[in-house]
Design goal:
alpha+beta, single chain, elongated, 7-stranded antiparallel beta sheet
Length: 174
């Protein structure tokens, strides 16, 4: 029986290796710092390429921008920048002209407007909080021509910090 299992195990290892779906790290997980990006440059680039206002928040020391991209949502897009907080948590800020009903499921898989758990006033703006049981929260503020969405594994303090920072700056001019 062991001999009949050997070819199967070898085949599984070959498929996993070819797909690069597995990794082996005998020394344990990497302790290298997370990748970093120039968030201000990413925001400026998006501001010149989208039709809605983009804000570039100034965040506390210790926060590191580590990802940025723009994704299509119907006939518009969502500008996203991700951050690692001082507590090694992740938050993503998305800015879009998409309606909330389209933005939520695009940013947080399966989340919908029926998942609202209430509102919170931060920075003089009402943020609607959406969360599914066992999922990460999403905070959404509607600023007229743009919706701001914050999601991730950050603490409530992290969410408050990013919400205040993004509201404290004027939109970039393209």
């Amino acid at each position: 029986m062991v001999l009949s299992m050997a070819p199967l195990v070898l085949l599984i290892l070959l498929v996993a290796g070819a797909a690069r779906a597995c990794s082996f790290s005998p020394g344990g997980p990497s302790t290298a710092p997370p990748p970093t990006i120039d968030a201000q440059a990413a925001f400026a680039n998006d501001a010149s390429n989208v039709s809605y206002p983009i804000r570039a928040p100034k965040l506390p020391d210790g926060w590191v921008a580590n990802s940025a991209n723009t994704v299509a949502i119907g006939s518009t897009s969502s500008s996203r920048v991700g951050f690692i907080t001082t507590g090694d948590r992740y938050l993503r800020l998305a800015q879009s002209s998409a309606a909330v009903a389209a933005l939520l499921p695009a940013e947080v898989d399966g989340l919908s407007t029926t998942d609202s758990t209430g509102t919170k006033e931060v920075g003089g703006t009402s943020w609607t909080i959406y969360v599914r049981q066992g999922g990460e929260p999403a905070w959404v503020a509607d600023l007229g021509p743009v919706r701001l969405l914050i999601t991730g594994s950050g603490t409530p303090t992290d969410f408050n910090t990013l919400a205040r920072a993004v509201l404290a700056v004027e939109p970039l001019t393209s």
